[in-house]
Structures are given as C-alpha cells and as structure tokens.
Amino acid sequence: MTDSRCFHCHEAIPDNTDLTVDILGQPRHMCCLGCHAVAESIVEAGLTDYYKHRSDVADKIEGELVPTALREQFEQLDLDVVQDEFCTVEVDSKEALLSLDGVRCAACAWLIEKHLSRQAGVVRATVNSSTHRLLLRWDSSTTKLSALLLSLANLGYQALPYDQDAEDSSFLKQKKNYLIRIGLSALASMQVMMFAVALYFGVLDMEPHQQAYLRWVSLLMATPVILYAALPFYFSAATSIKAGHPNMDVPVSLALILAFTASAYATWQHTGEVYFESISMFTFFLLLGRYAELVARHKANARAANAVKLLPAVVHRVSSESVETVPVKQLVVGDLLLLKPGETLAVDGDIEKGNSHVDLSVLTGEHAPIAKGPSDPVFAGTINLDQPLYVRVTEIRDTMVASIVRLQEQALASRSRPVVFADKVARYFIVALLVVAALTATFWWHYQPEHALWVTLAVLVATCPCALSLATPTAITSGITRLGASGVIAKTADVLENLATIDRVAFDKTGTLTHGQLQLTEVHLFGDKLKSIPPLAVAAALESHANHPLAEAIIRKATTEQLIWSTAQNLQAVAGFGITGFVDGKQYFLGSRSYIAKQLNLANDVPSHRVLLASEHEAIAGFDLDDTIKNDAHTLITKLHEQGIQTAVISGDQTSHTEQLASSLNIQVAAGACSPKDKQSWVAARQAEGERVLMIGDGINDSPVLAQSNASIAIATGTDIAKRSADAVLVGERLTPIVTAINIAKHTRRIIRQNLAWALGYNLVVLPLAVSGMLPPYIAVVGMSASSLIVVVNAMRIERLKS
Question: According to Swiss-Prot or TrEMBL, what is its membrane topology (predicted)?
C-alpha cells in the first residue's frame, strides 16, 4: 500500500487531497471524506485489528457516507408493522436475518460482529462470511434497529432484511459463472489433450515446425483458461496472503502461473516441455470440485426455504356470514379458516372442526398420510388430502416452517469443532507445503536445473490441500441437510458430533413418549366436601393460566361439563409438582401426591391419584388421567437397543406411572416424581460415570436437563423454552427420526474420518513421489483433482442415507 492509494479502499487518491487517519501507529492516507469517516469510526471503536486481518480492501464510499434515502429506509424498518414481516420475537428481544452488502472477506465479518457486540442492546450478532448474512438479535426496548443499521452503514456495510428471491438470484448467478468457467476449461482440456497426445507419442515422426505449431495452438487454447477460468483462485490467493493466512488457493495459483509461464517460454524458445493440458485439466477439475461444494451448501437451506416460498398467498377465511378469500397478510390470530381438500395451509393453527388425512412431508420428509381431527395442531405447508377442515389460526408469520429456516441458518452459520480443527490443520499444511516446495526447487536447481521447475510444480499441484479443506465442511453441510430432511432440525453444527457419541437416550414421559393429550377419566371425592362448588371447577381455576398437558386435560373436561369457575388469585406454581392459589377467598393446592403431602404436612395418609386437590387442611378430590403411547415409541426403543444404546425415562409424573410406561416399552431405567433439578442431577450422575447422554423432552421443566445433556432434542410442539435449550428440534409426530438422526451423525463422523484419512494419506504418499521427481505434473493434476472430487462426492453420500 503506497501513499498514492487510499489505505481503506485502495482507490487512487485525487490531487490536492490531504486526509489521514492514524492506523496501526502510522498516518494512513484516505481518498475521500467517506473513507476518512469510516476509518475514523473503526479506530475510535477500538477495532483497528480489522486492518491487520482483512484479506481484501473495502468498497469505496461514494457520495454521502449514509445517503438520506437510506437513512429513511432504515427508519421505516423500525415500524412494528414492517418488522412483523421479517423479525421474530425471542423472549425479551427481536431477531432478524439480514443480507449484508460490502462484505469482502472474513475480516469484514469479524469487524461487523465486534462492532455490533459493543452496541447497547445487541444480544447477539453472527455473520456468515460465505453467504453474507447477518443473524442479529437485539433488545428493542434498549435500541432501535435503524440505529444499529446506521452504525453499520457508517463502517461501510449496508444491512437490509434477507430476501430469499435475492438469495436465489445470487446463487443462480454464481452457478452460471461456475458453469461458464467449467465449460471453457473442459473444452480447452479436450482440445489441448489431443495435441498433447500427438506431441508425446508422435514426436519421433513430426517435423520441428509441426511440433511448434501444436504448441502454439495449445498455448492459444490454454490462455483463456489461465486468464479467465482460473481468476477466482488468483483473487482468493491474493486476499489470503494480504490477511497473513495463506489458503489452499496459494499453491494452486502458483502452480498455474508458473506452469503457464514456463510452457509459454518453452513454446517461444522451441525448447523444453509444455504442460498446457495439465493447466487446463487442473483448472477444470478444481472448478468442478468448487461447483459441487457450492451446490451442496445451497441445498442445505433450499428445501425449507422453498417450503416457505410455496405457501399460498391467499386463504379462505370463515366469517359469521360467509367464506371469503383474503390475502394471508390480512389474517390475525384467532381467525377461522376453511382448508379444502388438496389445499396447502399457509399458517399454523389448531383444527376446530373436521377429520381428514394430511401430508406433513414439508416438515418431516414423510409423505405417508396422517389422520388429524379436532384440537390437533397443523402447521404451514400441511396439505389436506380428504375432507374439509376448519382451522383456528395460532401463528401467521413465525410458523414452524419459518422457524426451521431460521434454525438451519443458525446451524450453517456456526462452525463446528471438527471444521475449526480441519481449517487450522489445512492452514499449517499450506505453509509447510510452500516451505517444502521452496526446498525442492532449491535442491533440484543445484542438482538438475532443467527439471527444477517441473518437479516443483508437481509438488505444488499434487499436495495442494484442497481435499483436506473440503473434507470436513462439506460433510457437515450434507449431514445438517440430511438431518433436516429426516425431521430433526439442527440448531448448531456441533449437534452432529455430539449425537454420534451418545451412550444413552433419556426421555421425558408426557408429550414425548406419549401424545401428551391427557384425558381426565374420573374424579374421586373424599367425603362430602365442596358441595357448593365442584372440585373440577376449582382445579380449572387454578390451572387456567398454566401451559402443560395436565392443565389442558382438566380445563378441557371442565369446559365439556359446562362448569363455570372463578378467577384464581395469588397463584404460585412449583414446576413439576403443583400449584396453589385462592379461589373465592379460600386457599387450595393442586398437584402431585408428594406435593400435597408436603403442603398438608402429612407422611403417608394421602390418597394415591395422579393429581390431588386439597384445602389448607385436607385432601378434597383426586383426578385420574390417562395418556396414550406414541405409535412408534416401541420401534424407537427397539432400534436403540439393537445399536447398543441404553435407554431411560425420567419424568415428573408419579413413579408408578413412569415405571409402568418403562415396562411396556422395555425401557431399561425409570425415574419418576423428578423435579427439574432431579432430572438434571440424574443426567449429571450418568455423565460422571462416563456416559454421554442424549435427552429428549418438551416441557418447561425439561429445559435444565436439556442444557445439561451432551446432546438434546426438543419436541417441536413443546414449550419455547425447551426448544431454546435444546441442540435440535424434532418436527412431526413420529419418534423414529431420533434414531435416524443418530445414524446420520455416526455416518457423518465416519465420512469425515474417511475424508481426512484419504486427504492426509494421499498427501503423505504423493509428496515423496513429487519431491523425488517421479511424478509428472500432469499425473499430479489428475491425482489432486480426483482427491478433491472424491471427498466431495463421498460427503454427498450422506444425503442419500436411508432412514
């Protein structure tokens, strides 16, 4: 960087412009007020490390730093009605997926994350430098989104709500660009290879002028390859060198440029060997590998994103007078919709009337029809197959499908431990490769100078760590994609590694192994108490604001019997045990047998029922409830045992009910009457014995144990806090995707090990051959390219893994 160039954007500095900013201990010259302002902002924020690690210069800031029109656009994004279109509410904060403009390298991503993390109200900011997306979570009561976007604009980056159509357009543009380069290099490879065969095998019968002609034609065919098709490698290599972290494109670029230069020189001087066919083939195979990687990464989000795009834009809303067709944007929660046979549901809701079979393949990947009836939840993307259904809207924008897209975006944005490790190994390997290549060139220059260049080229090409760099991330991406197709949505990339090593699967009971649709079968009165007010009405009053299966069953039964209950006062709940409150001025307790015994200070003289109602002095009534086991629960347990994985059920339900369920499903360990802390302690005790535990749950009381476990999966229909605590979310009603997810994780780990073993083993075998001069460059090209393609194709096998 010279003083004639802007330190920030590297544009030429106009005459009579004297703008400087002290950066990294030196005055740096700027070309305009825009770059000067951005650089000052970076320095004042204490983020000058950006200039140490950036691998490309920033975009030039034209005109105003933040134009008035853009400021106004940011302000529009603060409106609630606008944010409802692209934001989701997460507890006390909001989250949005934004597209970034101006990101040029990994240092840009680092700068954006560091800058936003220092802004008041920002909870989390994660930048995916490959897709140029920003996942931003902020406290809307502390700061406005426009203020955060404006602060980014002052650094030279523009962030706006993510647009799937724009993303698809960008992918298609990249795909087209790759296909043009691949086609050009393939065409050149075929033509130049024919000339190379003639040169190698027909040289004894050729006149010198014929050989020269073939060489010149080969040079002509290879020139577009080296000047156009291979350009992405040069740019990537240059930016990585600037950042001080040379990547795999450095040896690739060196090999291409040296080989072409030497071959062109040999053609001009009519002496020495030419390797134009190696250059063309090398570029072709390398581009083919990059194209396969691009497609594999795009497929990770395509399935869920397409599900969102294919949702209908209009629905049939039922009013008191008629059925009208209205846009989805006009719906509000609570609206009643008519879903006709063959139609797709555009929102989430609960069936209010009607029985039919539906196709949930958009969520679960399974096309088998599923019976649905009143009170059953249905989600956006559900296809009605048989009879009309009347659906009450529960969620319009943040639907299950939209949540899947967001979760997969989070997973793909995160970097798993194997990926971080592989990147580190590849980085050191590249440096070592460059050192070995330099030593090889030095040795051969003194030993046999005429072979020095070709031997060095063989070293650079044959041992390029492309396969090593592709081995892990391609497998992880394919694994997350296959996991989503099976109905298990990963929240972090590490979930694959964690699932692959579990020894025991522990289940919650109600809502996990059972349907969670408890039915109140009988009410037992103890004596003649509460004649003036039915015990069921008191229980309904206490549970009216609760959100768990027991409460729903009690309220549903009370509603069916058309009971009327007063509003409970001073409610206090003990998660997993019970609740107390005042109804009509009198205190009551509702909960498990142990909870009632503790409240009444009784030891054993407490009736044995699933749920008990008591006053301050005595038990009043007992409620018996029943639940049904999920259809494939037994199949899941059997498959887990066949793989040598132990099982357990740990529940807050009574011990007798828990043990009965465990016995019917052949689960090895049962622990009932567990508080949230008891569940967490149980898992911690197993971990202390060396076990790695996968926890499956759905309730509020499962969140501590989900966080404690080595891996965890929450049921999609469970509570939000459970889903936030888990590593993955199980969508649909079937449980067997859990064992499929474990198999996918193990298969992914096996693929990663195969890829790494192949990449490292190949390099260890081929390096001595290349250094010793026994490996011609054109053979090195085939070997390296084949190695890269092998690991990509091997990784993509994960997506074809059967359930």
Answer: Multi-pass membrane protein
